[in-house]
């Protein structure tokens, strides 16, 4: 019985520490597949040679909603660049998300039912979480783990990546 307990304890602690592993700046992004509300899909291969801003969120998350106007302005600011993608993987199903987006405009391309991808990127499951990926598929900005994201930090990180990739 003692060995059974120790074995279960070992498996539990191993799983817990593995599941809390976080990505760091400079790490390669994991494989993923997202379905977008426009009917297209997006994978890791689709974003190579692009700068990508990810916002993981859900519609009943108040902090996730308060920055939408600022994020829309950010999209507008870079609308003439064809080397950047703004993607917002949401946890909700497509129908729920489309209803929400019919009342609240989000200029990011929106992915639905993205819990599986969120669990890979956003190990702590804190929302909203933001990631910027460079043209080589590397993390260059990670804001996951605090509930007090600073839009100015996201914007500055994006400006820095443009300076280093030009």
Compile the SSE list and pairings.
Elements: H1 2-19, E1 33-36, E2 41-43, H2 44-47, E3 51-56, H3 62-66, H4 68-77, E4 84-89, H5 94-103, E5 109-112, H6 115-121, E6 129-133, E7 139-143, H7 151-164
Parallel strand pairs: 3-4, 4-5
Antiparallel strand pairs: 1-2, 1-5, 3-6, 6-7
Model description:
The chain is α/β, with parallel strands linked by helices. It has one domain (24-164): Glutaredoxin, CATH 3.40.30.10. Helices cover 41% and strands 20% of the residues. It has seven helices and seven strands, in the order αββαβααβαβαββα. The protein has a seven-stranded mixed beta sheet. α5 (94-103) links the parallel β4 (84-89) and β5. It is globular.
Beta-strand content estimate: 15-25%
Q: Tell me the count of domains.
A: 1
Largest sheet: 7 strands, mixed
Helical percentage: 40-55%
Using the coordinates above, name the CATH class: Alpha Beta
Mean pLDDT: 84
Q: Count the E strands.
A: 7
Radius of gyration of CA atoms, rounded to a whole number = 17 Å
Structure, briefly:
The protein has 166 residues and is α/β, with parallel strands linked by helices. It has helices spanning 2-19, 44-47, 62-66, 68-77, 94-103, 115-121, 151-164; strands at 33-36, 41-43, 51-56, 84-89, 109-112, 129-133, 139-143.
Key terms for this structure?
166 residues; alpha/beta; Glutaredoxin; 7-stranded mixed sheet; 7 strands; 41% helix; disordered N terminus
């Amino acid at each position: 019985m003692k060995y059974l307990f120790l074995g279960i304890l070992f498996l539990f602690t191993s799983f817990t520490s593995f599941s809390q592993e976080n990505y760091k700046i400079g790490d390669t992004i994991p494989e993923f597949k997202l379905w977008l509300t426009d009917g297209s899909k997006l994978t890791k291969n689709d974003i190579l040679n692009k700068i990508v801003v990810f916002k993981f969120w859900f519609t009943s998350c108040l902090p996730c909603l308060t920055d939408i106007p600022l994020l829309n302005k950010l999209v507008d600011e870079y609308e003439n660049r064809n080397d950047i993608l703004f993607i917002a993987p949401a946890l909700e199903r497509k129908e729920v998300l489309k209803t929400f987006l019919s009342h609240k405009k989000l200029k990011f391309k929106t992915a639905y039912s993205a819990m599986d991808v969120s669990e890979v990127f956003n190990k702590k499951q804190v929302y909203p979480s933001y990631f910027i990926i460079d043209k080589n598929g590397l993390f260059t900005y990670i804001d996951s783990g605090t509930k007090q994201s600073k839009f100015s930090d996201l914007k500055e990180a994006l400006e820095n990546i443009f300076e280093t990739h030009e």
